TrEMBL record:
Keywords: Hydrolase. One of its GO terms (molecular function) is hydrolase activity. It comes from the Bacteria. Transmembrane segments: none annotated. This is Dienelactone hydrolase family protein. The keyword Metal-binding does not apply.
Length: 241
């Protein structure tokens, strides 16, 4: 893939990324600092919704340029759903089922290249992903040159454990012990495959369901979310600043 170009729209919270496959947009939240590391925020199955935008703003408040790419652009640009209704779940699952994981990782790599060209980008870049994004954050650690990655309750990681040997930068993983999308036996396979890798740090959250850190989500757990987010903040502070 050739190096993408990027431009900022009149809306300072929008970034357009140009690749050989086409253009797609990303939501951007900017810090007050003149120079800052970049964090690519990787969406759940619901698109760039209020949760993802709030996550970007929280990271910007911590001193990062937070960039959330629209990874559903190949299907339908601008998807923004919640977990509050069955209709939205059904639509989100339709997008998820049709999603091309390899193309998604390619788009994340393009986002990294483009975001590092933004004014004020310090040259360091991390990634954080949730649910589908948790899988993509893991694959970002195995397939890109990101300096650090964080995966929240990733779904499907067990199908890519053969790539674990490619993790050359630090990866932090938050795993819910009651995740309805990751059965105990699947979780154990992940732990067994990764526990010997000194680049990987894994935290388990007893009693927590999938998406325990989703802002205003149905399974939000304030105590677990604060703990996971504090660990994430410390992790990025160590590896990106």
């Amino acid at each position: 893939m050739s190096t993408p170009t990027n431009t900022q729209n009149a809306d300072s919270n929008a970034l357009v990324i140009t690749t050989p496959d086409g253009d797609f947009s990303a939501f951007v939240a900017l810090p007050k600092a003149d120079s800052a590391p970049v964090i690519v925020v990787i969406q759940e199955i619901f698109g760039i919704n209020a949760d993802m935008r709030e996550t970007c703003r929280q990271l910007a408040a911590l001193g990062y340029i937070a960039v959330c790419p629209d990874l559903y652009w190949r299907q339908e640009p601008g998807v923004s759903l919640t977990d509050q209704t069955q209709d939205e779940w059904n639509k989100a699952m339709t997008f998820y089922t049709a999603f091309d994981v390899d193309a998604g990782v390619s788009d994340i790599a393009a986002t990294i290249s483009a975001a590092l060209k933004l004014p004020g980008a310090s040259g360091k870049v991390g990634a954080v992903g949730y649910c589908l994004g948790g899988l993509l954050a893991y694959l970002t650690a195995t397939r890109t040159d990101a300096d650090a990655a964080v995966a929240y309750y990733g779904v499907g990681i067990d199908q890519h454990l053969d790539e674990a040997a490619n993790i050359n930068q630090s990866l932090l993983m938050h795993i819910a012990e009651e995740d309805e999308f990751v059965p105990p036996e699947t979780r154990q396979r992940i732990l067994t495959a990764l526990q010997g890798n000194h680049q990987v740090d894994i935290h388990l959250y007893p009693g927590c369901n999938h998406a325990f850190a989703r802002n205003a989500g149905a399974h939000y757990d304030a105590v677990a979310a604060r703990l996971a987010n504090a660990r994430t903040a410390e992790f990025f502070d160590k590896h990106l600043k």
